[in-house]
Amino acid sequence: MFESDLPRIRAVAFDLDGLMFDTEALFFRVAEEMLAQRGKRFTHEMMAAMIGRNWAVAGPALKRMADLNESTDELLTEARSRFLPRMDHEVQPMPGLLGLLDHVERAELPRAVTTSSRRDYAFRLLDRHELTARFAFVLGSEDVERHKPDPEIYRRAAERFGVEPAELLVLEDTATGVAAGRAAGAYVVAVPHAFSPAEGLTAAHRIVQSLGDPDLHGLIRRL
User: How far apart are CA 121 and CA 135, in angstroms?
Assistant: First the structure.
């Protein structure tokens, strides 16, 4: 259970990919297909080097680890052309997301999305699942100069909410995102999944099993 001396939380920031939606699973399938056509294999080690990072970091990591000849721009164009047409039909909310949003709303805590992806991509996902109106704002990669694990996005989120960083609850699924939230001074809860196991998330204040974990709901009830 959570300790009784929790900081006062006045707002909640949700990461997007892998935390709210199972986009990482689709990306893994897309990357496997891309590399298989080149006679190569996409590995979990490659995924670990990319997850939670924007393409400026993830693209070079893929190119280097898979020993690819194409430019990172070419790889991104191909990945998008494979991923986006399938996203609307193959990506679903992560278990417990809708119930958690209900719970946070009942607690009257404002919510935002804070993602390393671009805003138009985030809105496409949110609109598809009729979730856009449940968030006060969305911060994407174009809203910051320095990307996760830099704390800029969470400091900006706190500013937009009008709260101190220590009053912000951050929900993340990657070590990169956890590091960003901790460096911002926020209270960070991590939610592991198949591509981001719990052993890589130990820097979080707490690790829960899913967005529907009773411990996470209990934390919000205490706020």
Answer: 15
